[in-house]
Amino acid sequence: MKLSDELPTDHKLSRVYRFGGGLTGLVLLVFGCLGFADQLAYFDTQGDTVAGLNTNGALSTVSVVFGVILIAGAVIGGNTASTVNTAVGVLFIVSGFVNLALLGKDTNFLAFRMPNVIFSFLVGLMVLTFGLYGRVSGNLPHDNPYWQARHPEQAAAEARAARRPRPSLTQ
């Protein structure tokens, strides 16, 4: 039994993964399209400002790609949305650190500035939270599939106890 396969696609937490990731993907998609509309140079390290963030053609492309990935995960839903959100969240946080190190250098090919780094960290943490919501907690209820996957013996015992017929009081 794999942990990633335990949450049914119609579980109520699926809405958190789907809406959060989908809305974030839509924001990234719009940002990338606005960058394309300005016909920015692809690898211009100075970039141009769009929606308060610095961008160039390369960053617009990356934004559209990750926006589409998040929207696709939201459309698929279930565990896929959760896993996609988790992976993209981690990548955004890593990107924030890498681009923080590249600020002011000629190798800053995505034309990041400090607002972009902060945006990358915030979006990464938000999408990571959407992806991990319901998977990671110290107080998961026993009917949560992730708790059951982590405690298979106790979950099996509880399931057997729930299936046992209960003696009626009228006998």
TrEMBL record:
Species lineage: Bacteria, Bacillati, Actinomycetota, Actinomycetes, Kitasatosporales
Name of the protein in its database record: DUF4383 domain-containing protein
PROSITE patterns, per database record: PROKAR_LIPOPROTEIN
Source domain of life: Bacteria
Keywords of this entry: Membrane, Transmembrane, Transmembrane helix
Residue ranges crossing the lipid bilayer per the database entry: 16-37, 57-77, 84-104, 110-133
Record-linked Pfam families: DUF4383 (PF14325)
